[in-house]
Amino acid sequence: MINHKDILKDIKNMTSQLIRVGLSVKQNFPICESLPNQIYEVTYANMQDLSIALKNIKYEEIYDELESNNNFNIKMIDGALIQLLYKYQKKTLISHRLAFFPSPYLESFQNEPEIYEDDEIYADILEKNIMAVPIRFDYDPSAFKEIDHPKSHLTLGQFKNCRIPVSSPITPSLFISFILKLL
Protein backbone atom coordinates (compact mmCIF):
# COMPACT_ATOMS: atom_id res chain seq x y z
CA MET A 1 0.00 0.00 0.00
CA ILE A 2 1.19 3.52 -0.64
CA ASN A 3 2.25 5.94 2.12
CA HIS A 4 0.23 8.73 3.74
CA LYS A 5 1.69 11.42 1.47
CA ASP A 6 0.56 9.54 -1.63
CA ILE A 7 -2.90 8.97 -0.14
CA LEU A 8 -3.20 12.68 0.68
CA LYS A 9 -2.21 13.57 -2.89
CA ASP A 10 -4.64 11.01 -4.34
CA ILE A 11 -7.56 12.43 -2.34
CA LYS A 12 -6.65 16.00 -3.36
CA ASN A 13 -6.47 14.95 -7.01
CA MET A 14 -9.78 13.04 -6.88
CA THR A 15 -11.49 15.98 -5.17
CA SER A 16 -10.18 18.41 -7.80
CA GLN A 17 -11.29 16.11 -10.63
CA LEU A 18 -14.81 15.77 -9.18
CA ILE A 19 -15.04 19.57 -8.88
CA ARG A 20 -13.75 20.03 -12.44
CA VAL A 21 -16.36 17.69 -13.96
CA GLY A 22 -19.17 19.16 -11.85
CA LEU A 23 -19.86 16.12 -9.66
CA SER A 24 -18.80 17.74 -6.37
CA VAL A 25 -20.92 20.64 -5.10
CA LYS A 26 -19.21 21.00 -1.72
CA GLN A 27 -15.95 19.66 -0.36
CA ASN A 28 -13.51 19.64 2.52
CA PHE A 29 -10.04 19.12 1.15
CA PRO A 30 -7.93 16.51 2.91
CA ILE A 31 -5.36 17.27 5.56
CA CYS A 32 -2.71 15.13 7.22
CA GLU A 33 -2.35 15.37 10.98
CA SER A 34 0.88 14.26 12.61
CA LEU A 35 0.28 12.63 15.99
CA PRO A 36 2.65 11.16 18.60
CA ASN A 37 4.43 7.86 17.84
CA GLN A 38 4.75 8.73 14.15
CA ILE A 39 1.02 8.35 13.56
CA TYR A 40 -0.36 10.18 10.53
CA GLU A 41 -4.09 10.65 10.01
CA VAL A 42 -5.35 11.68 6.61
CA THR A 43 -8.73 13.27 7.31
CA TYR A 44 -10.43 16.54 6.35
CA ALA A 45 -10.56 19.94 8.02
CA ASN A 46 -12.89 20.15 11.01
CA MET A 47 -13.68 16.43 10.99
CA GLN A 48 -16.00 15.58 13.86
CA ASP A 49 -17.00 12.45 15.72
CA LEU A 50 -18.26 9.85 13.24
CA SER A 51 -19.99 7.58 15.75
CA ILE A 52 -23.38 8.93 14.59
CA ALA A 53 -22.95 6.77 11.48
CA LEU A 54 -22.98 3.62 13.61
CA LYS A 55 -25.92 4.46 15.86
CA ASN A 56 -29.29 2.75 15.71
CA ILE A 57 -31.24 5.77 14.47
CA LYS A 58 -33.07 6.61 11.24
CA TYR A 59 -30.76 6.88 8.25
CA GLU A 60 -32.12 10.36 7.48
CA GLU A 61 -30.93 11.54 10.92
CA ILE A 62 -27.45 10.12 10.31
CA TYR A 63 -27.27 11.76 6.89
CA ASP A 64 -28.63 15.09 8.18
CA GLU A 65 -26.09 15.16 11.03
CA LEU A 66 -23.16 14.45 8.70
CA GLU A 67 -24.38 16.93 6.08
CA SER A 68 -25.25 19.80 8.42
CA ASN A 69 -21.87 19.53 10.17
CA ASN A 70 -19.93 19.28 6.89
CA ASN A 71 -18.59 15.95 8.15
CA PHE A 72 -17.45 14.66 4.75
CA ASN A 73 -14.74 15.05 2.15
CA ILE A 74 -17.10 15.43 -0.80
CA LYS A 75 -20.77 16.20 -1.32
CA MET A 76 -21.84 14.97 -4.73
CA ILE A 77 -24.27 16.69 -7.07
CA ASP A 78 -27.05 14.28 -6.03
CA GLY A 79 -26.42 15.02 -2.33
CA ALA A 80 -24.39 11.87 -1.60
CA LEU A 81 -21.61 12.28 0.97
CA ILE A 82 -18.17 10.66 0.71
CA GLN A 83 -15.66 10.23 3.54
CA LEU A 84 -12.04 9.14 2.94
CA LEU A 85 -10.06 8.52 6.13
CA TYR A 86 -6.65 6.83 6.48
CA LYS A 87 -4.36 6.22 9.43
CA TYR A 88 -0.66 5.33 9.18
CA GLN A 89 2.11 4.53 11.61
CA LYS A 90 5.33 5.58 9.95
CA LYS A 91 4.79 4.27 6.41
CA THR A 92 2.48 1.41 7.34
CA LEU A 93 -1.26 1.66 6.85
CA ILE A 94 -2.99 0.76 10.11
CA SER A 95 -6.59 1.55 9.14
CA HIS A 96 -8.89 3.18 6.65
CA ARG A 97 -12.56 4.04 6.52
CA LEU A 98 -14.02 4.89 3.13
CA ALA A 99 -17.73 5.67 3.26
CA PHE A 100 -20.50 6.59 0.85
CA PHE A 101 -23.76 7.97 2.23
CA PRO A 102 -26.37 8.41 -0.52
CA SER A 103 -28.80 11.25 -0.09
CA PRO A 104 -32.13 10.07 1.27
CA TYR A 105 -33.72 13.02 -0.52
CA LEU A 106 -32.38 13.01 -4.10
CA GLU A 107 -32.23 16.82 -4.02
CA SER A 108 -31.77 17.48 -7.72
CA PHE A 109 -34.61 15.14 -8.67
CA GLN A 110 -36.96 16.82 -6.22
CA ASN A 111 -36.02 20.30 -7.45
CA GLU A 112 -35.91 19.61 -11.20
CA PRO A 113 -37.66 16.29 -12.02
CA GLU A 114 -38.10 17.21 -15.69
CA ILE A 115 -34.33 16.87 -16.22
CA TYR A 116 -34.53 13.21 -15.30
CA GLU A 117 -37.91 12.17 -16.69
CA ASP A 118 -36.87 12.48 -20.34
CA ASP A 119 -33.35 11.08 -20.06
CA GLU A 120 -32.93 7.29 -20.22
CA ILE A 121 -29.59 7.39 -18.43
CA TYR A 122 -31.41 8.39 -15.23
CA ALA A 123 -34.33 5.98 -15.62
CA ASP A 124 -33.13 3.78 -12.77
CA ILE A 125 -33.31 6.53 -10.12
CA LEU A 126 -37.00 6.97 -10.89
CA GLU A 127 -37.81 3.32 -10.33
CA LYS A 128 -39.66 2.70 -7.09
CA ASN A 129 -37.81 -0.56 -6.41
CA ILE A 130 -34.36 1.07 -6.43
CA MET A 131 -32.86 1.99 -3.09
CA ALA A 132 -29.40 3.45 -2.67
CA VAL A 133 -27.59 2.13 0.40
CA PRO A 134 -24.60 3.37 2.37
CA ILE A 135 -21.35 1.65 1.44
CA ARG A 136 -18.22 1.42 3.54
CA PHE A 137 -14.81 -0.13 2.90
CA ASP A 138 -12.90 -0.62 6.14
CA TYR A 139 -9.40 -1.83 6.83
CA ASP A 140 -8.32 -2.43 10.42
CA PRO A 141 -6.10 -5.42 11.24
CA SER A 142 -6.32 -4.62 14.97
CA ALA A 143 -10.09 -5.35 14.92
CA PHE A 144 -9.64 -8.72 13.17
CA LYS A 145 -11.66 -11.64 14.54
CA GLU A 146 -11.75 -14.89 12.61
CA ILE A 147 -15.07 -15.22 10.71
CA ASP A 148 -16.71 -12.25 12.50
CA HIS A 149 -14.53 -9.29 11.53
CA PRO A 150 -12.20 -9.45 8.50
CA LYS A 151 -9.17 -7.15 8.40
CA SER A 152 -10.48 -5.61 5.21
CA HIS A 153 -14.17 -5.64 4.39
CA LEU A 154 -17.08 -4.07 2.58
CA THR A 155 -20.24 -3.13 4.47
CA LEU A 156 -23.50 -2.57 2.60
CA GLY A 157 -26.23 -0.66 4.39
CA GLN A 158 -26.18 0.15 8.06
CA PHE A 159 -26.11 -3.45 9.24
CA LYS A 160 -23.79 -3.87 12.22
CA ASN A 161 -22.54 -7.35 11.33
CA CYS A 162 -22.68 -7.23 7.54
CA ARG A 163 -19.00 -7.47 6.65
CA ILE A 164 -18.07 -8.87 3.28
CA PRO A 165 -14.36 -9.76 3.22
CA VAL A 166 -12.24 -8.07 0.56
CA SER A 167 -8.67 -8.98 -0.27
CA SER A 168 -6.90 -5.78 0.73
CA PRO A 169 -7.17 -2.09 1.57
CA ILE A 170 -8.04 0.18 -1.36
CA THR A 171 -6.94 3.59 -2.57
CA PRO A 172 -9.17 6.66 -2.61
CA SER A 173 -9.25 6.73 -6.41
CA LEU A 174 -10.34 3.08 -6.58
CA PHE A 175 -13.12 3.75 -4.07
CA ILE A 176 -14.34 6.83 -5.96
CA SER A 177 -14.25 4.87 -9.22
CA PHE A 178 -16.35 2.13 -7.58
CA ILE A 179 -18.89 4.68 -6.34
CA LEU A 180 -19.12 6.44 -9.71
CA LYS A 181 -19.89 3.14 -11.43
CA LEU A 182 -22.86 2.71 -9.08
CA LEU A 183 -24.32 6.14 -9.82
The shape, in one word, is globular
Distance between the termini: 27 Å
Extended strand count: 9
Reported for the largest beta sheet, the result is: 9 strands, antiparallel
The structure class reads: alpha+beta
Number of domains: 1
β-strand percent reads 25-35%
- Give me the number of helical elements: 6
Level of helix content? 25-40%
List low-confidence stretches: none
TL;DR of this structure?
By secondary structure, the chain is of the alpha+beta class. The chain has six helices and nine strands.
How does this model look, in words?
The chain is built from 6 helices and 9 strands; from the N terminus they run αβββαβββαααβββα. Helices cover 28% and strands 27% of the residues. The chain has helices at residues 4-20, 59-68, 107-111, 113-117, 123-126, 172-182, and strands at residues 24-27, 30-35, 39-44, 74-76, 81-89, 92-101, 135-139, 152-156, 164-165. Strands 1, 2, 3, 4, 5, 6, 7, 8 and 9 form a 9-stranded antiparallel sheet that branches. β2 (30-35) and β3 (39-44) form a beta hairpin. By secondary structure, the chain is α+β, with helices and mostly antiparallel strands.
